[in-house]
Design brief:
101 residues; alpha+beta; Arc Repressor Mutant, subunit A; three-stranded antiparallel β-sheet; 5 strands
Protein backbone atom coordinates (compact mmCIF):
# COMPACT_ATOMS: atom_id res chain seq x y z
CA UNK A 1 0.00 0.00 0.00
CA UNK A 2 2.72 2.48 0.95
CA UNK A 3 4.69 1.53 -2.17
CA UNK A 4 1.70 2.61 -4.24
CA UNK A 5 1.69 5.95 -2.42
CA UNK A 6 5.33 6.53 -3.30
CA UNK A 7 4.62 5.60 -6.90
CA UNK A 8 1.88 8.22 -6.96
CA UNK A 9 4.30 10.87 -5.74
CA UNK A 10 6.02 11.01 -9.13
CA UNK A 11 4.42 11.04 -12.54
CA UNK A 12 5.64 11.69 -16.04
CA UNK A 13 4.53 14.74 -17.97
CA UNK A 14 3.69 14.72 -21.69
CA UNK A 15 7.39 14.83 -22.54
CA UNK A 16 8.27 11.88 -20.31
CA UNK A 17 9.91 13.97 -17.56
CA UNK A 18 9.33 13.06 -13.92
CA UNK A 19 7.28 15.53 -11.92
CA UNK A 20 6.81 15.49 -8.18
CA UNK A 21 3.13 15.36 -7.25
CA UNK A 22 2.19 16.75 -3.86
CA UNK A 23 -1.55 16.15 -4.10
CA UNK A 24 -3.63 13.13 -5.07
CA UNK A 25 -7.31 12.64 -5.79
CA UNK A 26 -9.97 10.63 -4.04
CA UNK A 27 -9.85 8.21 -6.98
CA UNK A 28 -6.11 7.71 -6.41
CA UNK A 29 -6.78 6.75 -2.79
CA UNK A 30 -9.62 4.41 -3.78
CA UNK A 31 -7.39 2.56 -6.22
CA UNK A 32 -4.50 2.45 -3.78
CA UNK A 33 -6.38 0.93 -0.84
CA UNK A 34 -9.21 -0.70 -2.82
CA UNK A 35 -12.09 1.11 -1.11
CA UNK A 36 -15.30 2.71 -2.32
CA UNK A 37 -15.25 6.51 -2.83
CA UNK A 38 -17.91 6.78 -0.11
CA UNK A 39 -15.44 5.27 2.36
CA UNK A 40 -12.93 8.02 1.59
CA UNK A 41 -15.73 10.59 1.91
CA UNK A 42 -16.60 9.19 5.37
CA UNK A 43 -12.94 9.48 6.44
CA UNK A 44 -13.00 13.11 5.30
CA UNK A 45 -16.35 13.85 6.98
CA UNK A 46 -15.16 12.36 10.27
CA UNK A 47 -12.02 14.49 10.20
CA UNK A 48 -9.71 11.47 10.11
CA UNK A 49 -8.36 12.29 6.65
CA UNK A 50 -7.61 15.96 5.98
CA UNK A 51 -8.34 17.32 2.51
CA UNK A 52 -8.09 20.53 0.57
CA UNK A 53 -11.12 21.92 -1.24
CA UNK A 54 -10.28 23.56 -4.53
CA UNK A 55 -12.99 26.24 -4.08
CA UNK A 56 -15.68 27.18 -1.59
CA UNK A 57 -18.62 25.46 -3.27
CA UNK A 58 -20.33 22.58 -1.50
CA UNK A 59 -19.51 20.24 -4.40
CA UNK A 60 -15.94 21.45 -4.70
CA UNK A 61 -13.37 18.92 -5.91
CA UNK A 62 -10.99 17.87 -3.16
CA UNK A 63 -7.35 16.87 -3.12
CA UNK A 64 -5.21 15.17 -0.53
CA UNK A 65 -1.64 15.92 0.45
CA UNK A 66 0.47 12.80 0.08
CA UNK A 67 1.94 13.36 3.56
CA UNK A 68 -1.56 13.44 5.10
CA UNK A 69 -2.60 10.24 3.32
CA UNK A 70 0.63 8.54 4.39
CA UNK A 71 0.09 9.58 8.02
CA UNK A 72 -3.55 8.46 7.91
CA UNK A 73 -2.75 5.04 6.43
CA UNK A 74 0.07 4.43 8.89
CA UNK A 75 -2.28 5.32 11.74
CA UNK A 76 -4.93 2.90 10.43
CA UNK A 77 -2.35 0.13 10.09
CA UNK A 78 -1.11 0.80 13.63
CA UNK A 79 -4.67 0.68 14.99
CA UNK A 80 -5.33 -2.62 13.21
CA UNK A 81 -2.13 -4.08 14.62
CA UNK A 82 -3.01 -2.93 18.15
CA UNK A 83 -6.43 -4.58 17.79
CA UNK A 84 -4.75 -7.94 17.39
CA UNK A 85 -3.88 -10.00 20.42
CA UNK A 86 -0.51 -11.20 19.17
CA UNK A 87 -1.75 -14.32 17.41
CA UNK A 88 -2.64 -12.52 14.21
CA UNK A 89 -6.33 -12.79 14.99
CA UNK A 90 -8.53 -9.85 15.98
CA UNK A 91 -8.88 -9.41 19.73
CA UNK A 92 -12.07 -10.66 21.33
CA UNK A 93 -14.57 -7.96 22.22
CA UNK A 94 -15.02 -8.18 26.01
CA UNK A 95 -18.64 -7.07 25.73
CA UNK A 96 -19.54 -10.04 23.53
CA UNK A 97 -17.14 -12.67 24.83
CA UNK A 98 -18.80 -15.63 26.55
CA UNK A 99 -18.44 -15.69 30.31
CA UNK A 100 -17.75 -18.81 32.30
CA UNK A 101 -19.92 -19.61 35.32
Amino acid sequence: MLEQLSALSTRRDDEGNHQIVEFITKEDICRMVDVNPRTVQRWVASGELPCIKLNHNANSPIRFRIEDVDRFLLSRMRQAKEAQDGTGKPSADPTTAPTSK
